[in-house]
Amino acid sequence: MSEFPPCPECQSAFSYHDGTLLNCPECGHAWNQEEAASDAAMEADQDAVKDVNGKILENGDSVVVVKDLPVKGAPKPVKAGTKVKNIRIVDGEHNIACKIDGFGAMGLKSEFVKKA
C-alpha cells in the first residue's frame, strides 16, 4: 500500500507525507516520524522489567535475591544471595515467576533481585 508507517492514532494504512509531517486522511492526525519512533522506543523501555540496578530482565535470565524475603506459610525467608535460575517475566505485581530450591514455584518482585 504505502511506504509510510500506519497512523499511530487510528492505524490507517493510508498515511502520506506532506513535506514536513506524516498525515492521516481518515482521522486527520499529523505526526513527525522521527519523534514517533523515539516515543515508541521510550515506551517499550518503560514497559521492560528491570532489576534493582535498572538492568532489563528477560525470560531465562538468572537473578540473585538482594534482601531476605519472608514467604507466607514458610518457616524461613528466602535469604539474600539466593540465586534463582531460568526466570519467566509475567504481568502483575509479582512480575517474575520462578522456582526456588526449598520453596518451590513462586512469584518475585523485580525490585528485590539483581541480574546475575
Structure description:
By secondary structure, the chain is α+β, with helices and mostly antiparallel strands. The chain has two domains: 47 residues, N-terminal domain of TfIIb (Single Sheet), CATH 2.20.25; 53 residues, SH3 Domains (SH3 type barrels), CATH 2.30.30. Helices cover 13% and strands 22% of the residues. The protein contains one helix and nine strands. A three-stranded antiparallel beta sheet has the order 1-2-3. Strands 5-4-9 form a three-stranded antiparallel beta sheet, with no helix packed on it. Strands 6-7-8 form a three-stranded antiparallel beta sheet, with no helix packed on it. Strand 2 and strand 3 form a beta hairpin. The longest helix is centred in the middle third of the chain and has 15 residues. The protein starts with 15 loop residues before the first strand and ends with a strand. The model has no long low-confidence stretch (mean pLDDT 87).
Q: Globular, elongated, flat, extended or rod-shaped: what is the shape?
A: elongated
The N- and C-terminal alpha carbons lie at a distance of 46 Å
Can you write the helix and strand succession as a string? Answer: EEEHEEEEEE
How many distinct domains?
2
- Helix count equals 1
Question: Spatial order of the strands in the main sheet?
Answer: 1-2-3
CATH architecture of the largest domain: Roll
Tally of strands: 9
Strand content: 15-25%
Largest sheet: 3 strands, antiparallel
CATH domain class of the largest domain: Mainly Beta
Structural class: alpha+beta
Estimate the mean pLDDT confidence. Answer: 87
